[in-house]
## 1
Amino acid sequence: MINNDLNNHTDDKNNSLCKLMSDAESDECCVVNESDLTQTIEDESVSYEEIAQMAKALAHPIRLQIIRYLADNKTCITNDLVSLLPLAQSTISEHLRILKNAQLIQGEIEGPRTSYCINGKRLAKFKYAVNKLG
């Protein structure tokens, strides 16, 4: 079951998101060469619009739960989330669409289903950009 602590404690949210971003940097789903990751991120500028888009996508408790689930399970299909979350399939699909539009997750079509995984490079870019703000 997805950890509901994300909804209850601000500190836990921040710690979970930081851990999530660290986990995502080495995520197997999206093949990223870790030795090149830092240099690539530093070489690529991230606009304020991109930072805002990613922050907006992560600014919903359900989407944070989806990201956490993907970090723990590497991949999933929509039905996996429907069985775990108290939401309709169409609502979960909308949350997945928002995360995908922000390029925080990727979807690969596997027959009649789409398999989703975290875009580790994009989450690492977000983490790097936010750290540069402070």
Note: The longest strand covers residues 105-110.
## 2
Amino acid sequence: MAKTKVSNAVQSLGDHLREQRQAAQLSLRQLAEQTGISNPYLSQIERGLRRPSADVVQQLAKVLRISADQLGELGADVRGTPSVTVEDAVLADPDLTAAQRHALLEVYAAFTAPARAEREAAQQDEPDTQPDTEPDTQPVDEPLTA
């Protein structure tokens, strides 16, 4: 039975993971235990038979102390923070009419509003760590001169 590889990029990802694992002096079994990822699945990733999800890449990167972005460049399925916002992509899409853009942006805003409000509320609940930049307005007692 012939083994098929997902792509050359996934194979290079597997090779890179194997090199990083060996540099960290971890066996495949140890890496599996530390990441909570099954030993057979890790083996398939290293052999280029599987493309890991973003969560798996994050777990591997954390244990191996390497950048998840670097793994993404090697062919992992990393869906981190986009460098272009959804709004920018919708506005830049030449295949959409102005009305379609407007509708998509309204729907996106409606879907993301609860999470955005929750995040903003959490930020407001955090203690203020910024130093006060307001000058003291308390009058200073000066000695009377006669």
Note: Residues 61 and 68 are 5 Å apart (CA to CA).
## 3
Amino acid sequence: MRRLSSLVIVSALALAACGGSDADSAAEDPIEDDTGEPDAETGDAGNDDPDSSGNTGSGSDDDSDPSEDDAGTADDSDSGADGADTNASDEPDGAGSADKPEVDVPGEAPAELVRTVLIEGTGEPASEGDTVVVDYVGVRSLDGVEFDNSYDRGEPFPVTLGSGGVIAGWERGLDGARSGERVQLDIPADLAYGEAARSDVIRENEPLTFVIDVRQVVKIPDASDAPTEPGVELSSGDGVDDTEFVDLVEGSGPTLAEGDTAVLHFVYYRADNGVALESSWEAQPLTIAFVEAQLLPGLAEGMQGMQVGGRRAITIPPEDGFGDEGNPQGGLPADTDIIFVVDLLGAF
């Protein structure tokens, strides 16, 4: 299979906007373990969960963690949206978003991780390598002082289990989570940030409590499930006049809408002979912003209304794709239709 240049893939799927997107960095922000300090139990730096370790994932950004050294101080005001959240510790629990939960703190330091399911979820449980999309509120376990929440930002975020980008209490506490679940995690200091103070709010040896709403569990698909053919009739003659799509597999999950973040795999074919030119199935699923202005017109039109769990074949004429010139270096001749087969794994 010939591989397209990075530029072409960026143009097609807006990866520049989302491969290191705000959605991804938000996923690591509230609970990122980027100190490089060994965990008290295992000595590993930020990747110590025995149940979910070793995956590549979303632990690489460190730009706005309200509990990081560079953005987690109560008086730090230049760290963007998340920096503002550190000041949210002055607000009473439950302030802000209508569905932001109140937190019933233990009032004492837990001796071990305590995981309490407040609302039962449904579907398959999350496991190592899966992406768990959550909202959360975080407070000090001893007195309930809030240091951050995602509800007021209105931005759920994904956490990839086993990526090593979050504190051990989250890695372990989200293992087994199900979609729709609300869970409280009472986390001892050694599974949070340990002996080092992270801010004026998160002090040394600070136990933390989070209430987390699991919006979605995105399971890693089996690579053997990748499509091996377009699944639709190839273009003939002058090709198609307009973008067309066919659902090869009907989804049953949330419906993708403009402005959402989409988690997907794709295979990209020449529509005249069915030759595959590029596949994302060789790596981790892609996370992109589903924003019309950032996508090929044919993709924006063809993916609209997809439901999670669905597979859709989208046939795109040159004017809605890469233009009349095609991409000869990537194996796409001029004036040639293309077919994207898209598997929508998550949308939030």
Note: The CA atoms of residues 18 and 288 lie 5 Å apart.
## 4
Amino acid sequence: MIVELQPSLGRALVLGGGAIALRKLQSLAEAGFASLVVAPALLEGIRALPGVECEERSFERADIARERWALVFACTDNREVNRQAGELARAAGIPVVVTDAQSESTFFTPATIRDGSLAIAISTGGAAPAVTKALRAQLREALGEGWSERIEQAARERKRAIGADLSPAWSVPPSELLQPGQPSSNGEEVGQR
């Protein structure tokens, strides 16, 4: 089951400051989550991400209990730190990804494609991250751009239909929203409202 969590759930705790932590933080930032990063050293790109607070120090057991984290990501280069963080998070009932031990994780982060409100997730359940990355690139190319505008138009149509109690009779059929640049049944070009 893939679910899309909302940033109102709370902050994420990310342990580690390397390339894996950076990728996790980029995904969190794209989804609107605020995060705390705890690591003795941080890649420079981490500091530039929106909503990211950084503490340059080693992990402490108390970090897990410090606040009610929405999610924990244990992605240090230290197996024992990751194991311990995963164990503490699971005991506290906090969903955790332990990047170097799939069996110690309680969830996995899918590769995502985002364009405005559109989010497409691709997952191998943590078994083959390189495969999900490759599939994401292929799907992004196949889908093309401009989905944000089409989703916005579909949302306006849905709101109008619900407000006027017209569903399912839309003035622009949803199938037309999937064809960029085509005139809709009301004469407007899709995405040009």
Note: Helices lie at 19-30, 44-47, 62-65, 79-91, 129-143, 147-163, 174-177.
